Amino acid sequence: MNTSIIGYPRIGGLRELKFASEKYFRGEIDQAELEKVAKQIRLYDLDLQKKSGLDFIPSNDFSYYDGVLDTAFLLNAVPERYTSLGLSPLDTFFAAARGYQGEKGDVKALAMKKWFNTNYHYIVPEIDDAADIKLAGTKPFDLFNEALENGVKTKPVIVGAYTFLKLARYIGKKTAADFVDAAAAAYSEILKKFADLGAEWVQFDEPSLVMDMTAEDKKLFVSLYEKILSAKGSVKVLAQTYFGDVRDVYTELTSLAFDGIGLDFVEGKKSLELVRANGFPKDKILFAGLVNGKNIWKCSYEKVLANLEILKANAGEIVINTSCSLQHVPVTLANESKLPENVKKHFAFAEEKLAEIAELKKITSADAPEKTEEYLANKALHSEVRSGANDEVRAKVAKLTDKDFTRLPAFAEREKVQKERFKLPLFPTTTIGSFPQTADVKGARKDLRTGNITNDEYETFMKKKIAECVALQEEIGLDVLVHGEFERNDMVEYFGECLDGYIFTEKAWVQSYGTRCVKPPVVWGDISRAKPMTVKWSVYAQSLTSKPMKGMLTGPVTILNWSFPREDISLKESALQIALAIREEVLDLEANGISIIQVDEAALREKLPLRRADWREDYLDWAIPAFRYVHSGVRPETQIHTHMCYSEFADIIKDIDNMDADVITFEASRSDLTILDVLKENNFRTEVGPGVYDIHSPRVPSKEEIKAAVAKMLDRIPAEKLWVNPDCGLKTRGTKETVPSLTNLVNAAKEARNENS
């Protein structure tokens, strides 16, 4: 069988692209140097895939920031406010991704949302009624030629026409249907250009096909590809889906003139059933997503071979493929020097998945696959019983009852008690938690790890940073303060390091968005809390001020969703184990005088099944209770906050209200506060702080801009329920942006307070 992958990580094994890009943003290197680093990454990855024996090697899976934004620029779908700045093409691209504030203008970035059910964030295309969709860029062709010059005829990868139009935000009266002809013409021209360049295959990524589809959606998809495929000429076209199954459109998809169709047999609950029940056209190649592209555990060759036997009985030619792009896993295990061999042997990052695919090709080519050395070694590995079981934790989870997930008294009574206790002004101001992680902070953590400073020296330094942060917030005039989270490398990794049952990598970075990379911890065994994790820092910070100090925690669902989870127990079981530990921390904070506790669930929606029919049983029926259990034991006067960001919330807004927090802050600024209408329509009970400015952009919002956002909020949210805050933590920002932004925020809130008192 031939082999393929959908895409490969683009950040470099040691985050070379991140560091080069950030140097470029700071003006420390020029565009030529940035492009040099990018090319080095691409050619290294190309050579690696070539040497692995991969038959279908992708190109154009590289991006300086985001592939969806690349597609918007390729199709001329770029708002005029960016193109009119008069910047270079690359800087125009970065202005759309990050915003721009300088001598040529002041524009916000495009909206950013989660990429389906992952922790990757894509930039949302914006299409207005005057948009002229057409082929306008050369990047896919340039990268195809680059690979060709280096001896590889690649399979170019482009976001498909249907997914692009479905993900776009429409400004005006026109909808996706109004752009079918223009989009089809542009994609047809893409295929013609690739034919002229000698490409054999082009991959159109269509993950939107795994979502719930209406009759109108199916009509849009079919009308697009009837036009596109009629002009494909000599190029073979692969429709690549991932993150689920195509149950709503299987018949239409397999009836169209695609030469290959990629289906996900890892997350696609019904993919195998669809092929078995309906067959698969013998004139098309099935790119079978059998190797998990989202998790880091080695795949079971036994399961792969079992699925292949079913597929062989129902399809013709089959290509062994990953379930999705490998950008969702770390690049390589080669940089992991501290993981014990008995642990490391269970893992496969992107580079190791290439080796797995090569082994599967060898195994499936053998006369007796189950007797090959590779198959037997893999089966033995999966038969091992790993350490990490905790019977006490499992027993506690098993004993939980409905009463354990209910906080008393009810919200309305608690709200009155808390208003009286805190006596906060109208439109109380706060931040989401973290403050800028400056070089000295990162240096201190590194010095502690390497033994250059003692733990006492480290704690003295951290207390100094906390005291400076508290003083700064007092000076700015914020109403509810935070300690800054300087001791935390990451909002999930930090807690993982404090919990039993987790293991950690050194350099297993995964791109979250743009230059932001995260290093997810790995759930190895049962989870429990060995000791308090945050109490001493919060108590120290509270001792420095008479204002309320928020204790800052990450919630159980987010900790799980931003970790690499186990595959031997359910996500529900893991989430409730983590909830036990976080509940202990919440109660310890309360017992030590912390009266406001924020339990962030930034990733609540991340593992929400993509199909509505699966929401309750497969996710919400345990995710919401897991959060409720964390805070169900606190006193009425203790105020519980939570935070969520960069997702669609409209369709689960009642479930979010049912989390029974006292205050919730949302990312809202990059989506133009569209969540406000949803809150109003659903009579949202919880007090709320929709973010008034975007912290992922370096631009500083003016006082007037923030006041306008507050005014917009007041049209939909009762004044007594409204908080004023940024849309996310300030960890990734610099002090030079943070201080003026927060100053403008506080001044805007004070003026709004005076005008509405």
TrEMBL record:
One of its GO terms (biological process) is methionine biosynthetic process. Residues 427-750 form the Cobalamin-independent methionine synthase MetE C-terminal/archaeal domain. Residues 3-314 form the Cobalamin-independent methionine synthase MetE N-terminal domain. The keyword Transferase applies. HAMAP family: Meth_synth (MF_00172). This is 5-methyltetrahydropteroyltriglutamate--homocysteine methyltransferase. Binds 1 zinc ion per subunit. Binds 2 Zn(2+) ions per subunit. It comes from Ruminococcus albus (strain ATCC 27210 / DSM 20455 / JCM 14654 / NCDO 2250 / 7). GO terms for molecular function: 5-methyltetrahydropteroyltriglutamate-homocysteine S-methyltransferase activity; zinc ion binding. Belongs to the vitamin-B12 independent methionine synthase family. 5-methyltetrahydropteroyltri-L-glutamate binds at R15, E16, L17, K18, K114, N119, R516, C517, W562, E606. Its EC number is 2.1.1.14. It catalyses: 5-methyltetrahydropteroyltri-L-glutamate + L-homocysteine = tetrahydropteroyltri-L-glutamate + L-methionine. Pathway: Amino-acid biosynthesis; L-methionine biosynthesis via de novo pathway; L-methionine from L-homocysteine (MetE route): step 1/1. Pfam families: Meth_synt_1, Meth_synt_2. Catalyzes the transfer of a methyl group from 5-methyltetrahydrofolate to homocysteine resulting in methionine formation. The active site is at H696. Zn(2+) binds at H643, C645, E667, C728. L-methionine binds at I432, G433, S434, E485, D600. PANTHER family: 5-METHYLTETRAHYDROPTEROYLTRIGLUTAMATE--HOMOCYSTEINE METHYLTRANSFERASE (PTHR30519). InterPro entries: Cbl-indep_Met_Synth_N (IPR013215), Cobalamin-indep_Met_synthase (IPR006276), Met_Synth_C/arc (IPR002629), UROD/MetE-like_sf (IPR038071). Its cofactor is Zn(2+). Zn(2+) 1 binds at H643, C645, E667, C728.
